[in-house]
Specification:
The protein is α/β, with parallel strands linked by helices and 463 residues long. The protein has 18 helices and 15 strands. The chain folds into 2 domains: 222 residues, Rossmann fold; 121 residues, 3-Layer(aba) Sandwich (Rossmann fold). The protein binds pyridoxal-5'-phosphate.
Length: 463
């Protein structure tokens, strides 16, 4: 039987994998989850990334894609990574591990899922004889990972909006030097918020939306979570091959990455603790500490990919821990939307506290990001990017008896200024992207105007 997917708000029809892949958000405003969690099959023991990935993901996609096609797709996806292991596990101290997730084309963990999602999109659209125009706004990381995932895909055109002159050189070049006819970079004369508003306005424009078959690859897409479950399984295999429990610390923004850890646990991976590591934007730390989740403004930090106001994927965890009661979650989310705050009752808070802990790490000060980058450089001659440093600092404040695996979400060379500030060393780009500053850039500068941007998309998308 093919897996069906249910909405966290309980009022949307169940969908197949292919529909969930292309739909993103459910019509009732909820996020999709599998109707049940399959158990990791015993053959997922090899420690081989591609084999494990196929075993772990197959029950989720079975019925939407042929087994042979899926196997080839997964192998092809992870052949784009710079190491044969795809992700590397490095022991940094007794019982303390780093899981390097940044060996993909854009040097950040989002590649692990997006490289697969781009291929899944192409396959599903070809099957249906359709096309899609992906639009997105980026302040850096997400844009380049989405572009690398969609480049050269037959059924996809991609337009990424970034704020003109306000993205770091490395991040802009990772987007604008991609030489592919279906990739379109637009520098908007405005801020990141302006870019995001333009994208929202394009999605709200019904006639434009259907005319160009607008699509998104945002972090609430179930397929991204699915692909991220794999490396938690792999980490447990490699760090504790005897099957004893492992803990994870995850530098968190939208809660997509750490929620995948929950998925792995539900599939049978023994997990002792999850440490949810946040920067100064600490809505999750406050939730796990006080039971109340309340919106505040966003503060810029050295770890910009975690500068978020709301962690959308948290809704999935709330659904899981509230007995999968969709009506309950719909009520909670309505309250959150209306008042900017919700409180989890004591019983549920206690339940969460058994497994989850939230930790906030500031940039400056004792045990902060800058100090942690400097300390790890001194002790291990290793350079951490600021996102990973939030994780390492949070892990060190919360020692466990079980092995602690901290997820390294970006390569230090993606954030050279912060790393140089902390250590005096400017991290070099890895050889495979070393010519980034010699490549030609291609982007169009457009005013912050919806009609102009829509006309640009219309004229360049392939039909
Ligand atoms: C996106 C991102 C994060 C946050 O991941 P979420 O899934 O949104 O929690 C952390 N670090 C880096 C480098 C990222 O790009």
């Amino acid at each position: 039987m093919a897996m069906q997917y249910v909405s966290t708000r309980g009022a949307a029809p169940e969908l197949s994998f292919g529909d969930v892949l292309l739909t993103g958000l459910a019509p009732d405003g909820g996020l999709y989850l599998p109707e049940s969690w399959p158990q990791v099959v015993s053959s997922a023991r090899s420690g081989n990334y591609v084999e494990t990935a196929i075993d772990v993901m197959w029950p989720f996609v079975d019925g939407s894609i042929e087994r042979d096609t899926f196997e080839a797709m997964v192998a092809d996806t992870y052949a784009t990574f710079a190491t044969d292991n795809v992700v590397e596990l490095v022991e940094t101290a007794p019982n303390e591990w780093l899981m390097e997730l940044f060996h993909g084309p854009t040097l950040a963990f989002k590649d692990v899922a997006l490289q697969l999602v781009g291929r899944l999109f192409d396959h599903e659209l070809a099957k249906r004889g359709g096309r899609t125009t992906i639009v997105g706004a980026t302040s850096g990381d997400t844009g380049s990972a989405a572009i690398e995932a969609c480049r050269d895909r037959d059924a996809v055109d991609i337009f990424i909006l970034h704020p003109h002159g306000r993205v770091s050189d490395v991040q802009r070049r990772q987007m604008t030097t991609v030489d592919s006819t279906n990739v379109h970079n637009v520098a908007i004369e405005g801020t990141f918020d302006d870019c995001q508003d333009l994208v929202k306005a394009m999605f709200a424009d019904e006639s434009f939306r259907s005319e160009v078959s607008l699509g998104a690859v945002n972090s609430i897409n179930w397929a991204r979570v699915m692909a991220q479950i794999v490396y938690y399984v792999v980490a447990a295999q490699r760090v504790a091959p005897d099957g004893s429990p492992v803990s994870f610390t995850v530098p968190t923004g939208n809660f997509g990455n750490v929620f995948a850890g929950w998925g792995a646990r539900m599939m049978g991976v023994p997990v002792d603790r999850f440490i949810v590591a946040s920067n100064r934007n600490d809505i999750l730390t406050r939730l796990f500490t006080t039971g109340t989740m309340a919106i505040e403004g966003v503060v810029p930090t050295l770890s910009p990919s975690m500068d978020i106001q709301i962690s959308s994927n948290l809704e999935r965890l709330l659904f899981e821990t509230h007995g999968r009661d969709g009506q309950r979650i719909a009520d909670l989310m309505a309250e959150f939307r209306d008042t900017g705050s919700i409180t989890i009752d004591d019983a549920h808070q206690a339940l969460l506290g058994e497994l989850w802990h939230g930790e906030r790490v500031d940039d400056e000060g004792p045990g902060g990001v800058v100090e942690t980058i400097a300390a790890i450089h001194e002790q291990q001659q290793m350079l951490l990017d600021p996102h990973t440093a939030v994780g390492v600092a949070a892990a060190r404040r919360n020692p466990t008896a079980s092995p602690m695996v901290t997820l390294a979400t970006a390569h230090p060379a993606k954030f050279p200024d912060a790393v140089e500030h902390a250590t005096g060393v400017r991290p070099p780009l890895p050889a495979r992207v070393g010519d980034l500053f010699e490549r030609d850039e291609r982007f169009e500068v457009l005013p912050n105007d919806l009609a102009t941007v829509e006309a640009h998309v219309r004229s360049l998308r392939r039909s």
